[in-house]
Amino acid sequence: MAIPLPIHGRGTSDNPRNRFERLEVTADLEHVEHDDEYLDQLAHPQTQYYVDATKTIIATNDSPDVGFTHSINPYRGCSHGCIYCYARPTHEFLGFSAGLDFETKVMVKTNAAELLRRELSSPRYQPVTLSISGVTDCYQPAERSFQITRQCLQVLAEFRNPAGIITKNHLVTRDIDLLADLASHNAAVVMVSITTLDKDLTRVMEPRTSVPLKRLEAIRKLTAAGIPTGVMVAPVVPGLTDHEMPMILKAAYEAGARFAGYVPLRLPYAVAGLFENWLTDHFPDRKDKVLNRVRSLRGGKLNDANFNSRMRGEGQWAEQLKAMFTLARKSAGMTGDFPNLSTNAFRVVDRQQMSLW
Questions:
Q1: What's the CA gap between 218 and 176, in Å, rounded?
Q2: Mean pLDDT, residues 165-183 taken together
Q3: pLDDT(357) > 50
Q4: Strands 105-108 vs 75-76: parallel, antiparallel or unpaired
Q5: How far, in Å, CA of 336 to CA of 230, rounded?
Q6: What distance in Å separates the CA atoms of residue 280 and residue 14, rounded to the nearest whole number?
Q7: CB neighbours (10 Å) of residue 3?
């Protein structure tokens, strides 16, 4: 017996098997089909938070197509619930599922700011731009309560260490004071991710993110505060959201964004099956069209892990997306380049020094 969990508020009701685990737990629902209270609990899973006892906070990577080498991720897992999220499979390293577990079991790095201060104070640390949200969104709903991202920004502002943020959440505007402080030293940039301008599509594809109008408002507020702000059209879902790219870029430019990027949809590991099921539930008439176009971008598969092509795709559709982006950006008037942040203002500051100012 399958329980049709409501999609509203969650990206998926599926919990596919963890690819690293030999055992799989399957609920025996036949014996509870008349237990309305229990079934209601299954249908409305609550988000659970766990302390992540990490020992370091700055992660490094040498991927040539990522755009940054050092990053901070205050949370693992994300209750935004974006069905397409490429980060979902990272939850399998924790013993969880890439499906509903990713949205409802969130690891919180409660000591992130303390670790960051220690690492920035180290004589071995070489100042570098730190990307916040390299994996999961640092302004997901958990941040409203835990404020881990704000605590990290406070440390970065003290040290004047440059930071770049990408988010789908209007909550980023809460920290305009710290971001503006960093921006005054050419040490801050924010990318607001907008996948669609359709609030109804947002509700089922990215259920706990800010609606498109709130994201545009975030761009407007950040820009007004002097913080360099751009828009990331990502992911572009061929056959579903690709036609919106010109409208998204135009709306973002009018809100104040002066630079932009895009990434076509990619579906690594368990995300492919989750996304297929989501299409079946919400867009059965477009399912084959969407998946076939994804395959045309990815060499006949639903995912391509090649560093040289995964961020842009290959083939006819990839070239069309590139041409559309280039033309739409120019038409919108968005001619600016991604800003080069500076580490020139970096300083080592301890708490005792701060108390004297």
A1: 10
A2: 98
A3: no
A4: antiparallel
A5: 9
A6: 13
A7: 14
What DSSP designation does 294 have?
H
**Amino acid letter, 49:** Y
Count Cβ neighbours within 10 Å for each residue of 107-116 and write b for 16 or more, e otherwise.
Answer: bbbbbbbebb
Which tokens belong to 121? 């104070």
pLDDT, tens only, 99-128: 999 999 999 999 999 999 999 999 999 999
3-state secondary structure of 33: coil
Which amino acid is residue 240, in one-letter code?
Answer: L
Question: Would you state the structure tokens that stand for residue 35, as one six-digit string?
Answer: 């237990």
**pTM score, two decimals?**
0.92
Under 8 Å CB-to-CB from 138, ≥6 apart: which residues?
A: 72, 73, 74, 75, 132, 148, 149, 165, 167
Which residue reads 């036609």 in tokens?
Answer: 243
Condensed to tens digits (0 to 9), the pLDDT of residues 204-224 reads 999 999 999 999 999 999 999
Identify which of 117, 182, 161 has the alpha carbon closest to the alpha carbon of residue 350.
117
Cα–chain-centroid distance for residue 180? 22
- Given the structure tokens 């302390």, which residue do they identify? 51
Contact 175, 140 (CB under 8 A): no
d(CA 281, CA 132): 33
Question: Which two three-digit tokens encode residue 3?
Answer: 């329980």
Edge to edge, what strands does the sheet with 75-76 contain?
A: 48-51, 105-108, 75-76
β-pair partners for 231: 192, 260
pLDDT digits (tens, 9 = 90+) for 73-100: 999 999 999 999 999 999 999 999 999 9
**DSSP string covering 241-279:** TGGGHHHHHHHHHHHT---EEEEE----THHHHHHHHHH
